Automatic annotation (TrEMBL):
Family: Belongs to the phosphohexose mutase family.
Protein known as: Phosphomannomutase
SUPFAM superfamilies xref list: Phosphoglucomutase, C-terminal domain, Phosphoglucomutase, first 3 domains
Source taxon at top rank: Bacteria
Pfam families to which the protein is assigned, alphabetical: PGM_PMM_I, PGM_PMM_II, PGM_PMM_III, PGM_PMM_IV
Keywords: Isomerase, Magnesium, Metal-binding, Phosphoprotein
GO molecular function per UniProt: phosphomannomutase activity
Alpha-D-phosphohexomutase C-terminal domain segment(s): 393-467
Phylogenetic classification of the source organism: Bacteria, Bacillati, Actinomycetota, Actinomycetes, Micrococcales
Secretion signal span: none
Documented EC number(s): 5.4.2.8
InterPro entries linked to this entry: A-D-PHexomutase_a/b/a-I, A-D-PHexomutase_a/b/a-I/II/III, A-D-PHexomutase_a/b/a-II, A-D-PHexomutase_a/b/a-III, A-D-PHexomutase_C, A-D-PHexomutase_C_sf, Alpha-D-phosphohexomutase_SF
Residue ranges constituting the Alpha-D-phosphohexomutase alpha/beta/alpha domain according to the UniProt record: 14-141, 165-269, 281-387
The keyword Metal-binding is assigned to this record: yes
Source species: Paenarthrobacter histidinolovorans
Length: 472
């Protein structure tokens, strides 16, 4: 490792709250990654241990995986290269093999980005509060010194393919062999679902399921030639929606670039909200946990999820726990509560059986099971889980975010409402007819509004009133 003379490294631009993300060749380079690999071993005390390293289909991922492995081996860890993996494959490997690991991905970010998601043994997340800051500081130290000191014994680097084991594990959790035949369109967005879908849902590695899979953009291509691998943006779902209708499919699935999130489209080409998916999966996981003797299974949902979720959980004999937005909060509460399942409005779904980690594929399998065990279309099934009308997330560019929230509070204070400040400010009508949340972005000059009401007219009235006050 060589460092340019007099260059001082500051990695704060790429080290975020939960992961590392930067522009390739600028804020993330092979030299930086090698130092991060070394620091990862030192901070987590992994000398002499096995660590797992993989990456997604971005062009820089193989080089970065090798650089991280070199840094880790220099500090005395034995590295197993997992090669091309989805992020939930990393979590599977860290859980099943009880080893710490890292994967190179920038998830749904554009092609010029790459990054690192890291986990401790057992797939425990690493965030700025649990080691990421220390890894950053030590990596900067190594970079500024221009050298990584060698451990007494250099670690070895080997190769380990986990795709088949991962696929078999997921199939054990959800048995789809008895499903009615389903026609499924899957948009992999040129991301890692192009590799995992044929392995888990197809017959590439395991016996065929009663599914006809119509692939969209399964070629692994980190330049994303068809559309960005970010299904949260409605325009990125259009090809899938059109294909579902054209092929007369029962369901459409869209994955983000590293395949840890999954979005669902019904047979009419309409999105099924992540809140409805949370309710659908929660119902199945509560029933399964109660069958095995758990009295009141716990379900986690973030505060932007539809209020239909806690209502359904209570009705089905579970206990709903509300949490802040963000995967490190969800995973922490999952562990504290021993929760069986957790869902977010952003289509991250977490499972106790998956080491409390999020996996888009396992959530998709639960939806396929729910659809395949009954005869009705997904639009009818989904409607049971979406009794309310949601605004979706609306961003307003505001410099004085606190002032805008205060204007809303003053305007609504004469009404019969409750306000809580778990994450931003949530205003709830005591008669249950509507609620809305205003959350300031930590990184951008945005105030984010999410509103939900018993009907379209009420939702629009509340939404428009709040936006007028915010933007006033």
């Amino acid at each position: 490792m060589t460092s340019e003379q007099n260059k001082t490294f500051d990695l704060s631009a790429s080290f975020k709250a939960y992961d590392v993300r930067g522009i390739v060749g600028e804020s993330i380079t092979a030299e930086i990654v090698e130092a991060v690999g070394a620091a990862f071993i030192d901070v987590l005390g992994l000398e002499g241990e096995t660590v797992l390293v993989g990456g997604d289909m971005r062009p820089s991922s193989p080089e970065f995986s090798q650089a991280f492995a070199n840094g880790a081996a220099t500090r005395g860890a034995n590295v197993q290269l997992l090669d091309l993996i989805s992020t939930d494959e990393l979590y599977y490997a860290c859980g099943a093999l009880n080893a710490a690991g890292a994967t190179f991905t920038a998830s749904h970010n554009p092609a010029e980005y790459n990054g690192i998601k890291m986990a401790k043994a057992g797939a425990q997340p690493i965030s700025s509060e649990s080691g990421l800051k220390e890894i950053q500081a030590l990596a900067e130290q190594y970079l500024n010194a221009g050298t990584i000191p060698s451990a007494a014994t250099r670690g070895e680097i080997g190769v380990h393919d986990v795709l088949k084991d991962y696929s078999e594990y997921l199939r054990k959790l959800v048995d789809l062999s008895g499903s009615r035949p389903l026609k499924i369109v899957v948009d992999a967005g040129n991301g890692m679902a192009g590799l995992t879908t044929p392995a888990v849902l197809g017959d590439k590695l395991l016996p065929a399921l009663p599914f006809e899979i119509i692939p969209l953009y399964f070629e692994l291509d980190g330049s994303f030639p068809n559309h960005p691998a970010n299904p949260l943006e409605p325009e990125n779902l259009r090809d899938l929606q059109a294909a579902v209708v054209k092929h007369g499919a029962d369901i459409g699935l869209a994955f983000d670039g590293d395949a840890d999130r999954c979005f669902v489209i019904d047979e009419k080409g309409e999105p099924v909200s992540p809140s409805a998916i949370t309710g659908m999966v929660a119902r199945r996981e509560i029933a399964r946990a109660r069958k095995s003797g758990e009295e009141t299974p716990v379900i986690i949902h973030n505060l932007l999820t539809s209020k239909a979720v806690p209502e359904l959980v209570a009705k089905d004999g579970g206990r709903a726990v509300r949490t802040r937005v963000g995967h490190s909060f969800i995973k922490a509460v999952m562990a504290e509560e021993g929760a069986v399942f957790g869902g977010e409005h952003s289509a991250h779904f977490y499972f106790r059986d998956f080491w409390n980690a999020d996996t888009g594929m396992l959530a998709a399998m639960h939806v396929l099971a729910a659809l395949g065990e009954q005869d009705g279309p997904l639009s009818e099934l989904g409607r049971q889980y979406e009794p309310y009308v949601s605004s979706g997330e609306i961003n307003s560019e505001i410099e004085d975010k606190a002032g805008a929230v205060e204007r809303v509070r003053v305007d609504f204070e004469t009404e019969d409402i409750e306000i809580d400040h778990m994450d931003g400010s949530t205003f709830t009508a005591k008669d249950g007819s509507w609620w809305f949340n205003l959350r300031p972005s930590n990184t951008e000059p945005f105030l984010r509004l999410n509103a939900e009401a018993k009907d379209q007219a009420t939702m629009e009235k509340v939404r428009d009133r709040v936006l007028a006050l915010v933007r006033g």
